[in-house]
Write a structure and sequence with these properties.
Helix content is 27%, strand content 23%. It is α+β, with helices and mostly antiparallel strands and 787 residues long. The protein folds into four domains: 244 residues, no CATH class; 125 residues, Ribosomal Protein S5, domain 2 (2-Layer Sandwich), CATH 3.30.230; 152 residues, no CATH class; 111 residues, Immunoglobulins (Immunoglobulin-like, Sandwich), CATH 2.60.40.10. Strands 1, 2, 3, 4, 5, 6, 7, 10, 11 and 12 form a ten-stranded mixed beta sheet that branches. Strands 13, 14, 15, 16, 17, 20, 22, 25, 26 and 29 form a ten-stranded mixed beta sheet that branches. The protein has a five-stranded mixed beta sheet with strand order 21-28-27-23-24, with no helix packed on it. The longest helix is centred in the last third of the chain and has 29 residues. The termini are far apart.
Length: 787
């Protein structure tokens, strides 16, 4: 719909008064029925002439219907648009052309520093009172019913004139912000992702007025007017194959009226309205469908949005205004996951965390932050998200928690306690497009994603802090519960003699660790890192050799704190160069005074080459970077079966006894730990669960067997004590054999590389098989040829 030649409505005073009442009636409606009834009463709902295609595109469902797959992610896009509106407002108030490369901020960090005085562009550096004041600019309000909430997103940003609404709020695929470097919205469609979740008719109300300070210098006859419209979804009709989104117009134009303010800002609980809104944008979504979020929005939904906006640029004030909730407060400020975790770190994070690391993949530099939660504390911060990828503080995609169960990661014992954030803000445009979908809630499969996953696997599997925590959790979980391995050994040896096929399950070359028979080899003192390091020393005195087909590792000693490279206040920076060119392939892992650098050889090198590397570590307090130089000599290819990197094995720190570092002995048998009903919650068991396999982080798995499985209890109910014991042993060993077979087959086909969560697969398959295991053993064994 081309509104270049805007036609002002006649009789503005009387018509405007009616439209103002209509606008306020729609704003205060809390159900789709109320909205539809109001529009029908006004004569608009059923009149085709009052509706125009969204984006002036009849087939707009193909774009709008292909947005975020989750309703929470769609809500986040609305909040991001509000942040952008605030940034744009401050820029335009200063008479700065937002697209100017000379005068406009170069990125969102520079904009936050210049416009709002936020140091380093991070809310972590703002005081609590400053955050609360900033949060008054953006509100997220819940109204209506508990089971069918309406959500309002309100900001006092730049706002739009009614004349510009079709080219801004109601446009698709236009380059409104494409050349503005300091905002996040680029694709001109993120605001439509919410529509498919907004009730049956996908209703959305938009009310807006231009910031008067900006409007002064603009030539727009509607700059002093409020404009509003309702967006709806129309079913396929008149030969149209798909639905279409349309928006309300009156006499061919956006409905307008003149008013100094509107009483749309939330009042004291439980009043959802009352305070005056002078300008900006008010958006309402009716009966928004978010399954599982019926609690006070200050709880579950707040937690979820914090995760999706780990480093939001500006804070948001959350208001619960639905009747029926209790609590000491009905409003709070949302500052993003990063600030929240920092404030909660003492009570919710393990000592030493978060830990920071840097990676370079395909020439793209990323900074990682690893959070390890205390037992039971991660649920307040994440769901299925294991590794979260962010750009400008917003989550753009993630890897699920099952990623930690990959054999190459080996962190099954910590999968419910780890969260990793990967900052991809500095990605080039091409690689950003190759990794992230335009909907900004999914990763795109491809070579870049696979290489990043490989680097993350290496980072996590070799992280000293995670490995120590994993062994600690493992000891706590199975100590005093581990069964004697001799009965299993005897059973398996007998089975192998009788069935050569089963022998393949016990490959003599595979050793499975036991956490016991542990010998202390030294004690490490508690590490206290410095905010700004005094040294960053390379622990390599001579040229290091590296086979052509391997990576190499070197280490630095430092007094830098674990979060040095990924924190909000004056973070450190790491740069690695080879022959004076930045190397595209490395992982740097910092933990308790040791920074371990893992590097892949560049393409095109050959045997005999001598590669010269230089590393620099710096921060804003260092007059000169910590510089280190080293050389790598390329050798012939090595046998990859012996490992993926070259590193000298270090001697134990001392021969004295200690209680914090251990060497594990090895056994060639799986470890079986019986689990009873009182411990079901620890393993997410129920009456039908059978077997859980947990990666030890070495070369094997621990097996947790549900001894209160309903099928097992049914079979032994009528048996005497001796036969009941026999059934328990049959059940247990049968499950272990099934688990071993699945794990062995998975290892051979490298299934985790294709996204298969083998631990989940074992859990689900054994639960299904537990119904028939004992009847099959008991009755099939009695069959004879005649049968």
């Amino acid at each position: 719909m081309d509104l270049t030649h805007w036609a002002p409505q006649s009789n503005v005073t009387s018509k405007g008064s009616e439209l103002e009442k209509l606008c306020l009636g729609l704003a205060k409606a809390d159900s789709e029925k109320e909205v539809i009834d109001t529009l029908k009463k006004a004569g608009y709902w059923d009149n085709p002439s009052n509706w125009r295609f969204y984006g002036s595109i009849e087939n707009n469902f193909s774009v709008i219907g292909n947005q975020q797959s989750l309703p929470e992610s769609a809500i986040v896009e609305k909040l991001i648009n509000s942040v952008d509106a605030l940034l744009m407002s401050e820029c335009l108030r200063r008479k700065i052309n937002p697209e100017s490369r000379e005068h406009a901020p170069k990125d969102i960090i520079a904009a936050l520093e210049e416009f709002f005085g936020i140091s380093q562009g991070s809310l972590w550096n703002a005081s609590i009172s400053q955050r609360k004041t900033l949060a008054e600019n953006i509100s997220f309000v819940a109204t209506g019913r508990k089971d069918a909430p309406c959500y309002e997103i309100i900001d006092d940003g730049e706002g739009q004139t009614p004349r510009k609404m079709p080219d801004t709020f109601l446009s698709l695929s236009k380059s409104n912000k494409l050349r503005i470097s300091f905002v996040q919205g680029k694709f001109n469609m993120g605001g439509t992702g919410v529509l498919q979740f907004a009730g049956h008719n996908n209703l959305q109300l938009i009310v807006t007025k231009r910031d008067p300070e900006i409007a002064k210098s603009e030539n727009d006859e509607t700059k002093d007017l409020w404009g509003f419209t309702v967006v709806r979804r129309e079913d396929p009709k008149e030969g149209r194959r798909s639905s279409a989104y349309t928006y309300l117009v009156v006499n061919g134009n956006i409905p307008t009226f003149k008013a100094e303010s509107l009483p749309l800002l939330p009042g004291e609980y439980p009043n959802p309205y009352g305070r005056p809104m002078l300008w900006g944008t008010f958006i309402k979504l009716y009966e928004y469908q978010i399954p599982g979020y019926k609690t006070n929005i200050l709880f579950d939904l707040y937690n979820r949005i914090c995760l999706l906006l780990p480093k939001i640029a500006l804070p948001v004030r959350f208001f619960e205004r639905r009747v029926g909730y209790t609590g000491h407060t009905m409003e709070t400020t949302m500052n993003g996951l990063s600030v929240r975790l920092f404030e909660d770190r003492r009570t919710n994070l393990e000592d030493g965390f978060p830990s920071s690391s840097t990676m370079s993949v395909c020439g793209e530099n990323m900074v990682c932050q690893i959070f390890a939660f205390k037992k039971g504390q991660s649920e307040k911060y994440r769901k299925d998200e294991g590794v979260v990828f962010t750009i400008n503080g917003q989550t753009h995609g993630y890897l699920p928690v099952s990623f930690f169960n990959h054999k190459a990661v080996g962190m099954s014992y910590l999968s419910d306690s780890i969260l990793v954030t990967v900052d991809c803000t500095n990605f080039s445009g091409r690689n950003r497009e190759d990794l992230f979908m335009n909907s900004r809630d999914r990763l795109r499969s491809g070579d870049l994603k696979e290489q990043i996953e490989n680097k993350l696997e290496d980072l996590l599997s070799h992280h000293s802090g995670l490995r120590a925590l994993r062994e600690k959790r493992r000891r706590e979980e199975i100590q005093n519960k581990l069964e004697d391995s001799k009965p299993l050994k005897d059973v398996l040896e007998d089975l192998v003699r009788k069935s050569p096929a089963l022998a393949s399950l016990l490959n003599p070359g595979i050793k499975i660790k036991t956490p016991f028979d542990l010998r202390p080899v030294g004690e490490q003192e508690n590490f206290v890192g410095q905010e700004f390091p005094n040294y960053f020393l390379l622990q390599l005195d001579e040229t290091k050799n590296c086979p052509l087909n391997r990576r190499f590792r070197v280490q630095y000693e430092t007094d830098a704190a674990n979060d040095y490279f990924e924190r909000d206040r004056l973070p450190g920076k790491f740069q690695l160069r080879i022959q004076d060119k930045e190397t595209p392939d490395y992982v740097l892992n910092l933990w308790n005074g040791i920074a371990t650098l893992t590097v892949g050889l560049p393409d095109g090198v050959k045997v005999g080459d001598l590669l010269e590397y230089r590393s620099d570590v710096s921060d804003e307090t260092q007059p000169n970077p910590f510089e280190a130089n080293f050389k790598i000599k390329v050798l012939e290819e090595a046998d990859l079966r012996k490992g993926g990197t070259t590193t000298e094995r270090k001697k134990p720190p001392s021969e004295k006894e200690g209680d914090t570092r251990y060497i594990s002995s090895n056994l060639s048998l799986p470890k079986i730990i019986p689990v009873h009903k009182e411990d079901w919650d620890l393993h997410k068991f129920d009456e039908n669960s059978a077997l859980e396999a947990k990666d030890t982080g070495g070369e094997g798995y621990d097996f947790f067997v549900n001894m209160d499985n309903v099928n097992l209890l049914s079979e032994i109910k009528a048996r005497d004590e001796i036969n009941a014991k026999l059934l328990q042993e049959r059940y247990k060993y049968a499950l272990v054999l099934i688990g071993m077979a699945m794990l062995r087959e998975n290892s051979e086909r490298k299934a985790e590389k294709n996204g298969t969560d083998i631990a989940k697969e074992v859990f689900e398959v054994t639960a299904k098989l537990s119904v028939i295991i004992l009847p099959m053993i008991s009755y099939l064994g009695e069959l004879e040829i005649e049968s």
